[in-house]
Structures are given as structure tokens and as C-alpha cells.
Amino acid sequence: MKSLLLALPALCLLTSPFAPPARAADVPLTASNTKVEFVCAHTGDKPDPRKGSFAKLTGTAIVDGTALTSIAVEIETASITTEIDKLTTHLKSPDFFNVRQHPKASFKSTKIVRDKTGIVTVTGNLTLLNETKEISFPATVSADGGLKLNAKFTLDRSQFGMTYGLDKVEKNVSLTIAVDAATK
């Protein structure tokens, strides 16, 4: 009984509104829990959408309680892959990703804001082909015991100097990002 009386104040402190807040947790991002996929199409009568993805990436998201507060990702551009070997090789060339000169692409968030409907706007710096531009994209995020993030948005590849074939290949690339990761 005496030990119960001694434990009662600690229990009250833990369940009170004055309890210490949950600490931020790192969420490792890897190719096994994070997918970055893209679709681009040719222009003209036969648009032929081409799908691709990146097989190697690393990063960290920070979750504070149930809120995503930060995300940083680095992608190995040489890990780009499509359903067509010749296209994959061309995308690795200086016409597009120039993977020998630019082996990495990166994104680091600068601001993450949740609106009234629960949609999160992620803003940050994307570096691609040695060009860094601020981008923003909407995402659905669940950060309860890990991180689930789903985003779909369009990126203008010409903004990063990827201007090859603008008369044949759409400049706007549709990106899909899906994360399903546990905290560290």
C-alpha cells in the first residue's frame, strides 16, 4: 500500500496536462520504405507515358508527437529505372540526369504546414543537376508511431536545366512519393 501511495504522484504527473511533451523521433527513410516514382509523356498524337523510379535513396524524417516536422532525402540518380532499358540509359545521360557529373539529387524541407483539412504542405529545397529551387507540394501524412506520407505533384524539369527534347517530351513530370516507415 505504501509503494502505491508513493507511485501515485508520479502517475498523476504522467497523465496530467503538465506532463512532458513527447520527444521528437527520427524516422529513417530508405528505398525499402520510401518510393519516388515519376511519369512523363511525349507530346503530340501519341503521348506514350513513361514510368520510372529510383532504387537507391537515404534520408531522415523527424516526427514530433503526431506531426511531421522535417524531412531530408538524398537520391542516387544512377539508380533511376524504367520499364525500357534504352530509356533508362538515356535518362542517365547528359541529356537528362547526367549521373556521372550529378550522382545525387536531394530535398530538404524548410517548412511543413498542416491545413484545417489535415493536408500538409511541404516546402523545401530540391537540388537537381546542381540547381537548387524551392518547391512545395501537398501530402497526406500520418505520424502516429511512424510515418506514412503520400504525395502527388508536378515538377517542371526545365526549371532545373533539364531542357532536352522539350518539343518532344513534356516538361512537366508527375511525381508520386509514398513513405511507410517506422520510427527509429
What percent strand?
A: over 45%
Number of strands: 11
Radius of gyration: 21 Å
Helix content: 10-25%
Structural class computed from helices and strand pairing: mainly beta
The largest pleated sheet is described as: 11 strands, antiparallel
How would the global form be characterised? globular
Mean pLDDT: 89
Distance between the termini: 38 Å
The number of helical runs is: 2
Write the element-wise H/E pattern from the N-terminal end onward. Answer: HEEEEEEHEEEEE
Are there runs of 5+ residues with pLDDT below 50, and where?
4-17
Strand order of the largest sheet: 1-4-5-7-8-9-10-11-2-3-6
Short description:
With 184 residues, the chain is mainly β. The protein is 12% helix and 52% strand.
Describe the model.
The chain is mainly beta and 184 residues long. It is 12% helix and 52% strand. The protein has helices spanning 2-15, 85-92, and strands at 24-30, 34-40, 50-54, 57-64, 67-76, 80-82, 104-114, 119-128, 131-142, 146-156, 172-182. An 11-stranded antiparallel sheet has the order 1-4-5-7-8-9-10-11-2-3-6, with helices on one face. A hairpin with a 2-residue loop joins strand 8 and strand 9 (131-142). The protein is globular, with a radius of gyration of 21 Å. Residues 4-17 have low confidence and may be disordered.
